[in-house]
Amino acid sequence: MSTDLPESAVPPPSTGADESSSAPTRRTFIATSTAVGGAVIAGGLVGGTFLSGSDEASAAQTPPSSRVTLTVNGTRRTVTVDNRTSLLDLLREDFGLTGSKKGCNAGACGACTVLVDGRRVNSCLTLAVRLEGADVTTIEGLDKGGRLHPLQQAFIDEDAFQCGYCTPGQIMSGVGCIQEGHTGSPDEIREWMSGNICRCGCYTKIVRAVEQTAGRK
Amino acid sequence: MHPFSYTRVSDTREALAAGSRGARYIAGGTTLVDLMRETVERPETLVDISGLPLREVTATERGGLRIGALVTMSQAAADRKVRTLYPVVSEALELSASAQLRNMATIGGNIMQRTRCTYFRDVTAACNKREPGSGCAAREGFNRMHAILGTSDSCVATHPSDVAVAFAALEATVHLLGPDGERTVPFADFLLRPGNTPDREQALRQGVLITAVEIPALPRPLRSGYLKVRDRQSYEFALTSAAVALHVRGGVIREAKVAAGGVGTVPWKLPAVEQHLIGERPSEALWAAAAAKAADGARSLQHNRFKPQLLNRTVERQLRIVGENA
C-alpha cells in the first residue's frame, strides 16, 4: 500500500478531483479496505485518482519540492515532497500511518509526537525535507513482532485514555521520557510529559502507565 | 505556508554564501516553521544549517563556557558543565517549552525566537513588528501577558525566551560569523528594544550566522538559579521570571547578577537590584529591599497591572532561594 513515488517519476497530473472529496476518500479507502476489502469504493480508484497529498500539491502548481530518503519504522523510503510538507503530513497522507495525530499543528499539544533518531519530537513542526537519512519511529512501529511495547500494554492495563486521540503521542512521548530517565517520581513524569495534552484528563493514569513501565525496565 | 526553496549546507562558508544571497537560516525550526504556517514568516529560501559543526559545549580558557549555536536546548540543559557551573542556565532551559521542543530547538535559535504576542501571530491584526506602521493591537487589546519594561508606543511584546534571561543576567556574549569575519556582541546589545522599529529585533545583519553563546567566568563559589511564575505549572510562557547568581565570601555578597523575564521587550537586566546587593550581608530585609527596585520604571497596561508587584515578589523569592544557601 506504499504510495512512495518511484524515484524517477514525474508527479502525475492532478485529475481535478477536488481535495474536499478526495481527502476523505483516501482515509475511507484505507479504513474500508482494511475492514471489508475495498470493493465498496473501488470505483473511486478508476482513472488513477488515488493520489497522495504531496503529489496533488506539487502537481497543482509545482511548488519547490525535494527528494528525501528516510527510514520509517524500519522501512527505507524515498519520496519527493513539497518542501512545505511536515513529517506529520508525510506520515499520515503519503505513508498511510495515521496513528500520529494532528491536534494543534503548532507544537503545542504533542499529539503528533514521534521519535526521530531516537529522540521525541513534534512531527508537525518538522519539515520532511530536512530528514535525509533520518530514522523515524511512529506508534505503528513500536511493537516487536506483533507484541505490544510494554508502554502500550501499560496504557491498556491502566485504562490510560478515554477518546484516545492523544494516546499515540502520549505513548511515543512516554517512550522518550523513559529513555531519557525522567521517571524518578510522579512529579518528574508529569513535568517531563507536559508537552502532551489530554483533553479527557487521563493524566493520573498516564503517569501511572509511564511509571510502571519505567519500573519494569 | 508560502512555497520556499530549500538547501542544506555542510560548512559555514556555504552557509554564509547562501545567507548573503538572502536565504534564511533554519536550525531547530520550532519557531520558524510555526510562523511560516501562520504566514507571519514568508522566507523564499531556507538554508538548513543543522549540519554545521556548532554542536559543542566547551570550557573557555578564561574559565567560562561556550555553548555552540546548534546545541539543542535539551543537550545544553543536560550538559554536566552547564549544570555544575551555571545551574541558572540549565534550570531556565528545563522550565522552557516541552521535552519534544527542547529536543528540536537550538541555543542559537532560542535567542532568535520571536514574540508570542497573539497579535503578532495573527496576520489580520495590526502589528508594527510584523507590518511596520500598521499599529499595535495589543496596546488596547488583551495585553495580560505583555511587557511593562522597555516598551514603546509601537510595541509592548515580550521576548519569550527563558534562557536568554539567564544569559542576560550572566552578561553572556554572542559569537557571530559574517562575510567580514568573526565578531562578538554583548548579550545586552544583541537583542534590541522596539523603539520605533519593533521589526528589528537583533543586532544582526542579513546573512550573519550565530556560532555560539559564551558565558563569562564568574568568581566562585557561585550560587545561581531560575524561578518562573506562570499560569500553568509547566509548558507555559512566563508571566514573570527571575535569573539570579550570587557570589558570597566572608558573609558578604561580592557579586550579584540578576535579570527578569516575562516583563520586558527584551530580557531585563536589573542593575539597580544588583547594586543594592553588592557589599551587603544576606538577610530577609536585604532581599526585600533589593527586589523592591526590580520594577523601577515599569509601565503597566490595562490587563497586566499585577505585573510590577508580581515581578518584585518573584525577584525577592529567587534572591532568598539562591541567597539562603550562598
Topology:
The complex is a heterodimer of chains A (217) and B (326).
Chain A: H1 19-36, H2 53-61, E1 65-72, E2 75-82, H3 87-94, E3 113-116, E4 119-122, E5 135-137, H4 150-158, H5 167-180, H6 186-192, H7 203-216
Parallel strand pairs in A: 1-5
Antiparallel strand pairs in A: 1-2, 3-4, 3-5
Chain B: E1 5-8, H1 12-20, E2 24-26, H2 32-37, E3 45-48, E4 57-59, E5 65-68, H3 73-78, H4 80-85, H5 87-94, H6 99-104, H7 107-112, H8 118-121, H9 163-170, E6 173-178, E7 181-186, H10 187-190, E8 209-215, E9 223-229, E10 240-249, E11 252-261, E12 268-269, H11 271-277, H12 284-291, H13 307-324
In short:
The complex is a heterodimer of chains A (217) and B (326). Chain A is an alpha+beta fold and 217 residues long.
Protein traits:
heterodimer, A: 217 residues, alpha+beta, Ubiquitin-like (UB roll), DNA polymerase, domain 1, 2 domains, B: 326 residues, Uridine Diphospho-n-acetylenolpyruvylglucosamine Reductase, domain 2, Uridine Diphospho-n-acetylenolpyruvylglucosamine Reductase, domain 3, four-stranded antiparallel β-sheet, 13 helices, globular, oxidoreductase activity (chain B), Diverse_Substr_Oxidored (chain B), FAD-bd_PCMH (chain B), oxidoreductase (chain B)
